[in-house]
Design a protein that fits this description.
about 25% strand; 13 helices; 38 strands; alpha+beta; Phosphorylase Kinase, domain 1
Length: about 675
């Protein structure tokens, strides 16, 4: 190594230049090594021209910052220090490990990481107490990992793609944080298509069924059937090219096998079948394989280069992998060709004329039915001559309207709106009795907004034609003058929320699950429940997540059930609910899949903790706001009042405006 006015140069034993500092703006006058280990080149005014901390390779130390956009690069091996394929990168939201641009670990999803803020990240740094992502110019800790106190600490990205933090203890370096925890999560740990199986304390590399090779000798896994070959990506150096669909086959991996990037990438398509997913890969020359999730119809494409396959231990994983191959015998294509060759000529001749004849017959039948059908459209005239609204609108006829009541008739039925049984955002609800002694609930709408009479009646016609076991039936309506009223059948047991959270008789578990399977809960996520770590309120979604992580599902059971629900019963609902509030909308199941999971039609989804960590941030906000509210005299709302309580505590409109109220939009993001 040599120091010249142009900077530092490093040459080999033959005098060949191996490395040098970049071109500097002025001559170098001095070299300085700081106490933190930062090597500086100074000009004649002692101003810094170049600092080693600004150009990290595979290691950072205490006092060194790794700003957003900067990264550590792994060496190829312990002896070849040229740049490898792994990177540790700081983004504006996180710190991530990547292989060829694909993520396989995130700091925020780690069990030892504590998310303090949703502020943008500025840089990563270490100190004597741990590893930190700072924002706000260093004034805000966004994410932190607390480690044992040490004044000597380094973080390094090794050649295998592991991010390792070690502290100095005398002359030894002790490893204290290494990620990923599971070596099988490292993308190329077993080579191309190598199968990584995790066993306690180590890993085993092999080839999947239908593939052969010797992973212990770094021989790549190839199809056992030599008539198949693996294509190269079109943007690789192997001159890959677009393939004819008839040349492509897909070799199926065994159930339970997964790929490292599936948990960090977005499917290219949702709700498609396997054939469509494979066709997408066939048409894209950079695609080398697919993973297809049966429960959601999600399609993942593996592009550019294949890494290792993971033998998953998760029973809920229903993704199936298929490796793209060229050649071999395709029974599907042969069958199609045979059917084409053997298709009868007479059918080709007769099919068009037969179809034309059937279309004519169908048109005649429809015309006859239309001429003879009874008139089923019942029009309702609005604005009668003796009504105060008759001058507002011309008579309007809308098909499908339910019974229309006069305002005076509903005044009599409700005893001049004397018995109020509820209230909502659009008005109050009153109990009434019609002339035929039928009990009804009459909603008197106060907020008319800009809605006209015709628009109101059109909506009523739509609602009146909807019939479902879990929806209260609309009996009729009133649209007279500026009065708007809805008449519903009377439910003598009251609303479901009063049964769940009030003093009504407790609903048994079977009744709750039946309701859960048929309605979509619109809870705003602002309830409190006793904290798992001590007295005081806690944010319920976070409490549910914590109980899920600990496997303590019965901690969420309504105490009024007195143990009549099993841990498996509660687990099913908790897992489905947590899947529904994933931060990324594409990870949330459809309502059809929610119902299927609750009814046992498909396997339960597995909540992704990395997509639920935002609940920890909201939980801390909720707790802080609750403390402020209690200090100011705010009332506390318990999710489950005790069965023997003499009175219940309920929320008021004022509590909804308090700091502790968090909306469903904040909980789960855009839908």
């Amino acid at each position: 190594m040599g120091l010249t006015p142009r900077g530092i140069t490093i040459v080999d034993q033959d005098g060949n230049l191996q490395w040098s500092t970049p071109m500097l703006k002025s001559p170098v006058m001095a070299l300085q090594l700081s106490e933190a280990g930062n090597l500086l080149l100074l000009d004649r005014f002692n101003a810094s021209l170049w600092e080693s901390f600004d150009y990290p390779t595979d290691t950072i130390v205490i006092g060194q910052r790794l700003p957003v956009g900067k990264f550590l690069s792994s060496p190829v091996s312990d002896v070849d220090l040229s740049t490898g394929d792994y990177q540790f990168t700081v983004t504006s939201r996180d710190a991530v490990l990547q292989w060829k641009g694909l993520r396989y670990w995130m700091l925020s999803m780690d069990t030892r990481a504590y998310v303090n803020s949703n502020s943008q990240v500025g840089y990563l740094a270490m100190n004597a107490t741990g590893l930190y992502l700072f924002g706000g110019g260093g004034s805000v800790v966004v994410i932190q990992v607390i480690l044992s106190r040490s004044d000597a600490r380094i973080a390094r990205l090794d050649s295998l793609g592991r991010f390792i933090v070690s502290n100095g203890s005398g002359t030894q370096w002790e490893q204290e944080f290494a990620r990923p925890v599971d070596d099988c999560q490292i993308p190329f740990i077993c080579g191309r298509i190598g199968l990584c199986t995790d066993i306690p304390g180590s890993k085993v590399c092999s080839c999947p069924p239908s593939f052969q090779g010797n992973r212990q000798k770094n021989i790549d896994c190839l199809p056992t059937d030599s008539s198949y070959s693996l294509p190269s990506a079109c943007n690789s150096t192997s001159n890959g090219s677009r393939l004819n669909s008839s040349e492509v086959s897909y070799l199926r991996l065994e159930p339970g096998m997964d790929y490292f990037s599936n948990g960090f990438s977005t499917p290219v398509e949702y709700g498609v079948n396997l054939s469509t997913c494979q066709d997408l890969c066939t048409l894209e020359c950079s695609c080398l394989g697919v993973f297809y999730q049966n429960s959601s119809g999600s399609c993942y494409l593996l592009k550019d280069q294949l890494g290792s396959i993971i033998m998953s231990t998760e029973d809920e994983n229903d993704r199936l992998g298929y490796i793209k191959a060229v050649g071999g015998f395709s029974p599907k294509n042969t069958d199609d060709d045979d059917r084409t060759r053997n298709f009868p000529i007479i059918v080709v001749v007769l099919l068009p004329s037969s179809g034309f004849f059937l279309l004519i017959m169908l048109a005649v039948l429809v015309f006859v039915w239309w001429r003879r059908r009874p008139s089923s459209t019942v029009g309702v005239k609005l604005g009668r001559p003796n009504s105060s609204s008759s001058t507002e609108f011309d008579p309007i006829s809308i098909p499908g309207l339910p019974v229309r009541f006069e305002y005076e008739e509903l005044e009599v039925a409700t005893d001049n709106f004397n018995t109020q049984i509820g209230a909502g955002g659009f008005g109050a609800v009153f109990k009434g009795t019609l002339s035929d002694q039928t009990l009804v609930a009459v909603k008197k709408i106060n907020d008319l907004g800009l809605q006209g009479k015709k628009e109101f009646c059109t909506e009523i016609a739509t609602i009146g034609n909807i019939h479902h076991v879990n929806l209260v039936k609309l009996r009729g309506f009133c649209a007279q003058g500026r009065q708007r009223l809805l008449v519903y059948e009377f439910m003598n047991r009251g609303s479901l929320d009063r049964t769940l959270f009030g003093n009504a008789p407790v609903l048994e578990w079977q009744e709750r699950t039946q309701s859960q399977s048929n309605i979509e809960d619109e809870s705003n996520g602002g309830g409190r429940t006793p904290s798992s770590s001590g007295p005081g309120p806690a944010y319920f979604p976070l409490f549910a997540l914590e109980m899920h992580e600990q496997g303590r599902y019965l901690g969420l059971e309504d105490p009024r059930l007195e143990g009549r629900a099993t841990s498996e019963d509660v687990e099913k609902l908790v897992r489905v609910a947590l899947c529904c509030v994933h931060e990324e909308p594409y990870l949330r199941p459809s309502m059809a899949n929610v119902v299927a999971m609750l009814e046992g039609g498909i396997a339960l989804g597995k909540p992704r903790v990395e997509s639920l960590n935002f609940l920890r941030f909201y939980g801390r906000r909720f707790t802080e706001a609750s403390m402020i509210e209690e200090h100011n005299g705010g009332s506390e709302f318990m999710l489950y009042p005790q069965a023997n309580a003499s009175a219940t505590t309920t929320t008021t409109s004022g509590s909804r405006a308090s700091l502790s109220y968090i909306s469903s939009q904040q909980v789960s993001g855009p839908r």
